[in-house]
Amino acid sequence: MNDDLRWLARLGIDQGLFTFPQCLQARSVVGKEIDLMSFAQELVDSGVVTDVEKLEQLAGLAVEEAAKGPPPVDPFTEETDAAFVQTGPGAAAGVLRKPVSDLKPLGSLAFETIRKLDAAALAEAMRDLLRSTSASGASDLHLSTGARPFIRKARALSYISEHVLTADDTLRLNTVLLSEGQKQIFLERKDYDYALALSGEDRYRVNLMFHKNGAAGAYRMVPAETRTLEDLGFSKHIATLKKMLSYHNGLILITGPVGSGKTTTLASMVAYLNETRTDHIITVEDPIEVVQPAKGCNVTQREVGPHTRTFASALKGALREDPDVIVIGELRDLETIEMAISASETGHLVIGTMHTSDAATTLNRLLDVFPPSQQTQIRSSVAESLRGIVCQRLLPGIDEGLVLACEILVSNTAIQNLIREGKSAGLKNTMETGVKEGMCLMDNVVFGLWQERKVSAEIARANIPNRVLRQRVTG
To answer: Alpha carbon of 234 to those of 258, 264, 355, 439, 440: distances in Å?
Structure first.
């Protein structure tokens, strides 16, 4: 097996393009004569990989890395999965995953004793576990049937116990803090999102679900205090962001992959508006994560489920509720996107999030949900209403923390013309020439972080698709 194939598997797993089991499955299908192209083709043919462009970029990077030698960990060895925990999207080649033997017990809960605890004792132990996880600096806690409990910290995963959770133990753990009504909803729907508040400053975003082995829960830690945009890492772009937020109408989009900090950035923007304006802000979230007390503004926070049926219905109602600013937790369907664009055209500042990786992809995703008959009209509407797009991702820093990298598009005459004409391919060139207006490309920002020694060369190369710029990264 060639080193370029090993590197492609390593990069794909670390970037979240496919998983370790999918990697092994593709190898078994292709057989012993496996090479880089046949392996990549099997991933596409089997439907494992849908982002072919990203796969091609990683294949090119794999060939470059293979010329220097094999990856530090062979992703095709069974020992790899047993000895290491996979990192999430945003990590890159050259970053060793944490050994599972490096356990970090949290709280007072001994997972082996769950079945011996009554409901009251288990609930208290679960609260202690969540508080301890938050205090440790982790961003997520995972409790899943058939797996050991683990946390995510600085994008890397670490086990906190050697005990493999049984189906009964996991179901009890994940439902012990639910009311009877909430538990009934979860058991009926098999999926449940909610915000868990242990106190006013002790909050968690929770997703409960069932998989092939049983129940599972993912707990996202919600910071007690809303950090400023400067604290999040936007110091160099703060003037641009504040200018976007100074408008009283228009559309601002915050985008990025899962776990890239979109919700945190959105909360910081709302906090900034809350402190600098005297307006009415309506937020629609699923669920409410960061509570925004009224300061200069009156803030009305609504949650999909308890307070409204859908994002779209909440948006429709919001237009009759005298808002100045409307904040949408996620633009996920045609009706919601259409209402958001309409609201931004009728004198409201609308801020929303999307799961996209760059400005061009964001615009394509935003516009392509509309049928062909509406394309001309909707492109004209977006061209007029769009104020800016902030695409972000979190990269592992050299000091083991996380570093923010972002791409910012600011609407100007050139950008508006490209949107109207449907020429998204020209956005990058226009953004490169729009630096004085506050625009920046992800490639250049990541390259700058490498020059400032905030991220390693391996991380930089894995997050710079531009081949010419990537070749300038050395070390």
So the answer is: 19, 12, 20, 13, 12
Q: Identify which of 203, 193, 376 has the alpha carbon closest to the alpha carbon of residue 285.
A: 193
Torsion of CA 438, 444, 445, 451, to 10 degrees: -130
Interval 185-227: pLDDT, tens: 999 999 999 999 998 778 999 999 999 989 999 999 998 788 9
Instruction: Provide the H-helix boundaries in 277-374.
Output: 311-318, 334-345, 359-368
Residue 404 Cα distances to 298, 428, 446, 448, 470, angstroms: 30, 20, 9, 12, 19
Read off the DSSP letter of residue 98. Answer: P
Question: Does the pLDDT at position 60 exceed 70?
Answer: yes
Q: What is the DSSP letter of 387?
A: E
Q: Are 135 and 191 in contact (CB under 8 A)?
A: no
Q: Where do runs of H (alpha helix) occur along 67-201?
A: 78-83, 119-135, 167-175, 180-189
Q: What is the pTM of this model?
A: 0.73
- Taken as a whole, the chain contains a residue count of 475
Q: Which residues pair with 215 in a beta bridge?
A: 210
Sign of CA dihedral 184, 187, 191, 193: positive
**Residue linked to tokens 């069974």:** 78
- What is the identity of the amino acid at 397? G
Cβ pair 121, 112 in contact under 8 A: no
Q: How far apart are CA 455 and CA 452, in angstroms?
A: 8
CA distance 120 to 212: 29
Strand 325-328, strand 280-285: pairing: parallel
User: What is the DSSP secondary structure assignment for residue 399, as one 8-state letter?
Assistant: T
Q: Which two tokens stand for residue 259?
A: 């776990």
> What is the distance of C-alpha 23 from the center of its chain?
23
CA distance 52 to 97: 26
Residue position matching structure tokens 């962001």: 241
pLDDT at 156: 82
Tokens (6 digits) for 378 = 């909707």
Strand partners, 209: 191, 216
